[in-house]
Each structure stands twice: as structure tokens, then as C-alpha cells.
Amino acid sequence: MTAKRAAIVGTGHRAQLFTEGLARRDHFDLAALCDPNPVRMAHHNRLLAALGQPEARTYHPDDFEKMLQHEGIEEVVVTTVDAHHDAYIVPALRAGCRVVTEKPMTTDADRCRRILDTVSRTGSPLAVAFNYRFNPVHELVRRELAAGSIGDVLSVHFEWLLDVRHGADYFRRWHRERDKSGGLMVHKAGHHFDLVNWWLGARPKRVYGAGRLGFYGRENGERHGRRADYVRAHGSAAAAGDPFALHLDENEGLRALYLDAEAEDGYHRDRNVFGDGITIEDDMAVLVQYDTGASMSYHLTAYSPWEGYRVMFNGTGGRLELEVVESQWQPPRARLSSAKGAVHGDTALDNAGGAQILLRPLWEPPRPVGIPQFDHAGHGGGDARMLRTLYDGEPGPAATATDGALALAIGLAANSSFTGGEAVDITDVVSVP
Question: What is the pLDDT of residues 186-204, one digit of tens each?
């Protein structure tokens, strides 16, 4: 079987999942990398060498379309800055490639329409890397709901807690700027919006939200006394004792991907979370109405002492409760296990917890739903299972461009509601076929 020629555009730490995943598959040839920063591409080529694979050719984004043609690319992975996804998705689809894009699919309605129109015109396949769908615990929840264990679902409450390691990290890097990430409602909560859409088999209709920046940022840090006076952590004496500082030189992967690469593009990965220039929220509440009549209340807190989530489904036959504790608390200087795990956790997190599902039928005692041993690997084991579906043909709940658009639409409507103070119809944001 001839190996399919693949390319990755965007070579930050998230791209490592795909670099390593494709390199370990004989039926793919990772032929090219595309990024404005040659130092980061060199790091990925070292990963390939460590796996016994030849170097991929490297390209600047200005030469992306040339790369597709010259290298005979059939598969493209997009893991660059969220606001730039469409700049690579669209020409790759037009060239007849299959595209896998990191979530979110994109960051605004115009870009979303451009992608949907291109998928429709070309017929080229696009998958969105919503790896939470592949978490075995989440699949158990879907099966329970589909089996009618609690009857018709009338309402959902989803509480998401990002701790002061992982949550803070969105305020150190480019994600803190709304024009690049769309804010946490688009970049992070899209994970969960897609998950609930998938769990319910429903489409969102109307969204109301209230959000604010209440913990991070200069003004808040000065108000609650947690601000240390530095712009970025590296080289700053003021950052030495700050538990919110990320020290890139303490981790080989972060040093190679970011600190050693700064001279190429000036990007600082370790900015002060209590600094200036933060344009996203850190505390958000959202109410979503679905076409099935169900509703969801959603709350995201990005400064919690523990990390995890609670989801409660209320139905005509009872209640289903999911609780996942990914980290019960964080010490002031969290263990840096890898470039991926340093801020997110690709292995067991410090003080890790577990998961439980509890079914509460009407007129009966509650009973636990048996789950496999909780997997602390990437996204509860979802990353590895997603790669097997995307690249090995293993059956699984892969997300389409339509799924990506529906998740994005909730986030965009929430952002609009934050600003305008009124409920927003999904169709007023983006029309999803």
C-alpha cells in the first residue's frame, strides 16, 4: 500500500500529537511542515528522527499552496493559531486534500461560512479534532442517554473548572487576545458545546450569556494582591516566586518550541497572567436552548483550585450525573512532565482524581454506571482513539465541518450576548446547513 503524503501547518506543542501519530503509521508519510518559525519546525524534525523517520521538508506559510502541489500532499493537519485556520483549510480543500483541523474550526462567522462553502463546493472531507467525543467515559454517557436511561432529556447543567495551572495558561499566550482565539467561549468551550450537541443529538437555537474578566489581568491582580511586576517570566527576578509564572527553561520541550524560537518571531509564551492586553473573559455563564426543547446552563471558571467538570442531565425518567476530577489541587510549582503535559497534562496530573457516573432513576435508589479505569493520558484517552479513527479507519464519532460550525456558533453567540446583554439566535450568527 502506498503511503499517503501528509503535511502539518502550525508546529506548536499541540502539533506534536499529529507529528508523532503520523510518524508511527506506515501508511502515512509526513512529508512537509509549514510554520513561520524554522526553530519550531526543526524541533518537530528531531521528533521524527527520534522515531526513525526521515526529516520533513519545511515551508513558510507564504508557500503553503506551493507546498501542497510540490509535495503531492493528500492529507493536511491544521494546528496553527485559531484565527488562521481558514487560510489553510480552504486552499487544502480546493486542492483535493483531506483536512483535519484542531478545534475550534475557526473563530468568526465569515471564516466559518468560507469553510462551509468550500466543503460544499469541493466535496473534499474536513474533520474537526473534537477529541472529547472519543473519551470512553463520554461515550458511556452518550450510550446511557441514547438508551433512554433517564427518558427524554429536558435540561443539562455543565460546570467546567480550569485550575490555576491549566486555566492560567490561556492568559500567558496568544489565546488571551480575542482577535486570535475568539476567547474561551470559542477556543475552549467549543470542546464542551460539541460534546453536548453530540450527547443530545440536538442543534442549538438560542444563546444568552454573561461573562467578565474578574481574576486575571493587571487591574484584577492589583486588586486581589496576586500581581508580580514583570512582563514575561523568563529573565525576571520578580517572576521567580510567582506561582502563576511559567518557566520555559525548566522544560526541554517548552525551551525548544518557544524559548529557543523567540529570535525568529518574537513570540513570548510566558507572559504575566496579571499583565496588560488581555481581551478575553475568565468567568462565563451561558444558557443554550436546543431544537429538541432541552436547555443547557454552562459555567466556565478559569481560575479554580481544582480541575475537572460536572455534568448533570435531567430527564423525564430521572437524572444522570457525571463528575470528572482531573486534578484535585495544584502545588505552587507544578511538575513539568513534558511540553504537552507541562500545562495541560498528557500523563497523570499532580493530585489526579478520577471519574464517576451516577444514574438516579425516578422511584429507585441511585446506582453507579460502571466505567473502565480512568485514563489520564491525553484527554482521557481520547487523543489516541481519535487518531485511530482519523488515520486507521477505526469506527468512531468523528466530527464534521457542520459539527465544528454548530459548536462555534454557540461560542460566537455567547460572545455577542456578553457584549449586547441580550439573547442571540444561532441563525443570526451563522447559517449552518
Answer: 999 999 999 999 999 999 9
